[in-house]
Amino acid sequence: MKIGMIGCGVISRQYLDSFDTLPDVQLVAVADLDPARAAAAAEGREGVRVLTVDELIEDAEVDTILNLTIPAAHAEVDLRAIAAGKNVYSEKPFAVTTQEGAEVLAAAQAAGVLVGSAPDTVLGTGTQTARVAIDEGVIGMPTAAMATMVCPGHERWHPQPDFYYVPGGGPLLDMGPYYIHALVTLLGPVSAVIGAASRPHETRTIGSGPRAGEVIPVSTDTHVTGVLVHESGVLSTLVMSFDAVATSAHPIEVHGTQGTLAVPDPNHFDGEVTVRRLAGEGWEALPVGGGYVGAGRGIGLQDMAVRGRELRASGELGQHVLEVMNAVLESAHSGSRLEIASTVSRPEAVALTELTAAEPAAEPATTQSAAS
């Protein structure tokens, strides 16, 4: 799969670090609205061309667009790429509005191209080891889960944090995808939500970089909590905040009739999974049991290249999670429980896998339907 990367900002560095480890993925071109950033991304990479955004979308060598633009541009760039006959793989969130995401899926389906969505962290050994434990009945029947992410806000470290504080940003749409993708991977799709949210500060002060000290406005909720009702009946409690200092809670806990799993940070690929059994004493570390070993951002592209329309980090999953997040925000302001219109298959578990050689592709990725 030959990749054209649009957007060469902070997150692109992590993708660039991974490309050489992906046997079925090749970066061939980069583009950014800032030509200097694109040139820096291509520097030292043989065969990687620096193009304009328009040139990259139309380039005949590129079959898949990796969309690393800001959230507000995700849907627009995806739709342009799809119209040019390209597969697309978008950074999270899949889009800003649920309607935009639906339009991307519909366009991909009509064009017969693949569509994928970050985060692919759920394909690593951390979340996948927890998935194995749940599937093997280690904690009995799952009954509830908790997902917690709190921090003081990204303006403390990010030199251009504006997009975190407008619609499409905030802790839910920025960090929520990691946690909700993991919850759906572990416990299945969501059927309804109840939400509450607040915005204690109307401005934020940039803490690093050339704009340090500049005050920016806040136009989205910065503390969000909600209850996700999974189709299975499991209830997940979600807390996402840019208004707290720290927490001692596990990033994700899954409670069952026979025990509780502590799942590592879903913003990372690995990490220790521990279990507290009903009849046991203390927390017990579980052996690594599934996932791509040593994975980094971009493993979703490898999975896409090999599995075609059966890709796990699919656009359908990204769209379902987007609808869930937007429904939580809508519920927070309406005070009502909201039903989720979409559903998605629980992604297939990832067997313990080390990428040491090219894997056989099930079917050519460029000829597959966008359905996953």
Describe the structure concisely.
This protein has helices at residues 12-19, 35-42, 53-58, 71-83, 98-111, 125-135, 170-187, 299-307, 315-334; strands at 2-6, 26-31, 49-50, 64-67, 87-90, 115-117, 142-150, 190-198, 203-205, 215-217, 223-230, 235-241, 252-256, 259-263, 274-277, 284-285, 338-339.
Class of secondary structure makeup: alpha/beta
Q: What is the CATH-assigned architecture of the domain at 121-285? A: 2-Layer Sandwich
Taking pLDDT < 50 over at least 5 consecutive residues as the criterion, the unreliable ranges are 357-372
Shape: globular
Strand line-up of the largest beta sheet: 16-15-14-13-7-12-11-8-17
Which homologous superfamily in CATH is the superfamily of the domain at 121-285? Dihydrodipicolinate Reductase, domain 2
CATH class of the domain at 121-285: Alpha Beta
Q: What's the β-strand tally?
A: 17
CATH topology of the domain at 121-285: Dihydrodipicolinate Reductase, domain 2
The description of the largest β-sheet is: 9 strands, mixed
Strand/helix succession? EHEHEHEHEHEHEHEEEEEEEEEHHE
Gyration radius (Cα, Å) is: 20 Å
Number of helices, where a helix is a run of at least 4 consecutive DSSP H or I residues:
9
Q: Give the averaged pLDDT, no decimals.
A: 94
End-to-end Cα distance, whole Å, is 17 Å
What brief labels describe this structure?
372 residues, alpha/beta, Dihydrodipicolinate Reductase, domain 2, 9-stranded mixed β-sheet, 6-stranded parallel β-sheet, disordered C terminus
